[in-house]
Amino acid sequence: MLYAEAMLWDSIRAAIARAFWRLSSWRLVREAEPVAGPRLLIGAPHTSNFDFVLMLGIAWDARMRIHWLGKRELFRGIAGPVMRAIGGIPVDRSNAAGVVEAVVARARETDRFLLVVTPEETRKGNGWRSGFYRIAMAAELPVTLGYADGSTKTAGLGETIRLTGDVEADMDRVRAFYASKTGVRPEYRTEPRLSDEAALTRQLAGE
Fold first, then answer.
1. Which class for 35: exposed (0-12), middle (13-18), buried (19 or more C-beta within 10 A)?
2. pTM (whole model) above 0.85
3. What average pLDDT values come out for the chain (207 residues) when binned by 10 residues?
């Protein structure tokens, strides 16, 4: 995509986002200090399909060219070009190692790479998947804590952190941030907790 064309699309998306936030009952909270360079954005709590709309509203308002992971089936047929146009990356979720490798390779292609990840197992599940942590560590990406909070009808981007490899300590910081965030449907909210944080720390350290 040519630079002028890309800038035009950024402007169109930003205009759509501004219209959405003016009409929506939700309020946008922008970053206190915008972060430059590639990064991973967490979208949580993921409790509703409306989360996707909020995510686009947040990203397009900030003129972010985001990417997100979707199962390959979503990209079949006529839907494929549409999904890719709004940042979708088709992945085989049965191959976790392959997903991490593919994302790391994409992240190293450009300094504008922004990946949105929803870490919950499912919207009715227990805990978070560790994929976002593995990707951020492997690609050396800072992690921005994006959120939707139904209790205040606000959505936006919170702090950006650097993961340390001490999974329990990093996740304690993540848990503290999301403790007050309910999601669109609070009954589906899950605790930001990985299945075995101590074991993941040892694994990342090569023990």
1. middle
2. yes
3. 75 95 97 89 94 94 87 83 82 73 78 87 74 91 96 97 96 97 94 93 87
